[in-house]
Design a protein that fits this description.
Helix content: over 70%
Structural class: mainly alpha
CATH topology of the largest domain: Growth Hormone, Chain: A
Largest sheet: none
Distance between the termini: 48 Å
Order of helices and strands: HHHHHHHHHHHHHHHHHH
CATH architecture of the largest domain: Up-down Bundle
Shape: globular
Length: 427
């Protein structure tokens, strides 16, 4: 029954995704194939991430183990990002994506073995813990290549005039999977056990591989495939640094997530301030994702036509205000509402930033610039959790989140004043 209940909650997201992608998919059937593969892949990965966090904490009883888990993945993901961008730009992106998915499939199968009842009955649980860290480290390596490839491949699947819509659809697929995946994982674990959950995840990964295999081979866009690795990497960095619209959009998003990461403190707010149980915390955690999915659906039906740069900055500012209201709220439904709205505003800024990256970046540099973008995102997410924890320790939970929201507003004010090209940007 829990599984059926979770499916009922996630089904509207899948319906919205289907409705949102009907307008141009008849023209671009390969975009439909890509979106199906991306949704299934992210859905499966979110299931695995949720299950591993739950299992590891059950195994160790130590919250610090979750920190080590995140660190195991983010170190290779950031460390290899620039090199990955060079490799992606001189490779067939379809083959890169298919190869990365197969490696994820192998890692998921290994995690299924490590989390089985056989492993749990082993006398040395420390070895099981280390095996999990080792496997997650390698998924971080794969993530350094697959994440930018997912982003950069979209421009080769549609014509330029349909690129903003295609970017919106791709983001919608990611967000819908990110919301539904953890819900399905929790339901499957509680109803059928973690081994069954991993079995479902493996089936979904196989389906994602099958869809990706159906994509056509895509031409290599790099104009100088013989260029040395370091020269190629420096070219990507120079492009980001010199293109102010791209650099400012990435920086604003990074600092907003870095300082506005109230979600990292959700367990504290749920238990000690709002006085709700784990179900209430789950609703709070899903609120932002639901808001983002809905606004992506709305934008896919009615794209932003003008003042996109100004709208992005205003959305990030509204995101910061939502975080401040969440910090001072003592009412569960008010907290849920402002987190939902923060997801709406975050979704708007994500669409504008992603479209800027697609429209402004030359075809032969998409992999390298997408890898720089992944470094910004990974750094802000992981460092944002660290910043939230340190600030809460020094200032207290509520003051630390208020501080983060105020810093987000300060970042937007600085960008509005110092980056007029982004403020005035239209596409």
């Amino acid at each position: 029954m829990e599984f059926l209940r979770s499916f009922r909650h996630s089904a509207p997201l899948l319906l919205l995704l289907y409705m949102a992608t009907q307008s141009i998919l008849g023209i671009y059937p390969r975009l439909r194939i890509f979106l199906a593969g991306r949704f299934l892949f992210i859905f499966s990965m979110q299931m695995v991430n949720t299950a591993i966090g739950w299992y590891l904490y059950e195994l160790t009883g130590n919250p610090l183990s979750l920190g080590w888990l995140g660190l195991s993945e983010v170190i290779p993901a950031i460390g290899l990002a620039l090199y990955a961008g060079h490799v992606i730009d001189k490779s067939d992106k379809r083959n890169m994506l298919f190869g990365g998915m197969r490696l994820y499939l192998m890692a998921t199968a290994l995690l299924a073995v490590v989390t089985s009842s056989w492993a749990l009955d082993a006398p040395n649980h420390r070895m099981v813990e280390l095996a999990i860290y080792f496997t997650i480290f390698w998924t971080g390596v794969f993530r350094a290549f697959t994440g930018p490839t997912f982003h950069s491949i979209v421009a080769q699947l549609v014509e330029k005039e349909h690129l903003p819509q295609a970017v919106t659809y791709s983001s919608t697929a990611w967000q819908a999977a990110a919301v539904a995946g953890p819900v399905a994982a929790g339901a499957l674990i509680s109803w059928l056990g973690i081994s069954v959950m991993f079995g479902v995840s493996i089936v979904l990964l196989l389906a994602a591989c099958a869809f990706t295999w159906r994509l056509p081979n895509l031409p290599v866009m790099h104009t100088n495939v013989q260029q040395r690795t370091w020269e190629s990497v420096k070219a990507g960095l120079r492009y980001v640094w010199r293109t102010r619209e791209v650099l400012t959009a990435l920086s604003v998003d990074m600092f907003a997530v870095l300082f506005g990461g109230a979600v990292a403190m959700l367990p504290v707010f749920a238990k000690d301030i709002l006085h709700v149980d784990a179900t209430g915390m789950g609703l709070l955690k899903a609120a932002q994702g639901i808001g983002t999915v809905l606004v992506l659906f709305a934008i896919s039906r009615k794209p932003l036509k003008k003042h996109q740069g100004r709208i992005m900055l205003q959305s990030v500012a509204a995101f910061g205000l939502c975080i401040i209201v969440f910090a001072v709220s003592k009412n569960f439904w008010l907290s849920f509402a402002v987190l939902f709205l923060s997801g709406v505003f975050d979704g708007i800024s994500v669409i504008v930033r992603s479209t800027i990256l697609q429209l402004y970046v030359p075809d032969d540099m998409r992999g390298r610039v997408s890898s720089v973008n992944s470094m910004f995102i990974n750094s802000s997410n992981e460092l944002g959790q660290f910043e939230s924890g340190v600030a809460a320790k020094l200032l207290g939970t509520v003051p630390s989140v208020i501080f983060g929201g105020c810093m987000t507003l300060l970042v937007v004010a600085a960008a509005w004043w110092k980056a007029p090209t982004l403020r005035k940007l239209e596409y």
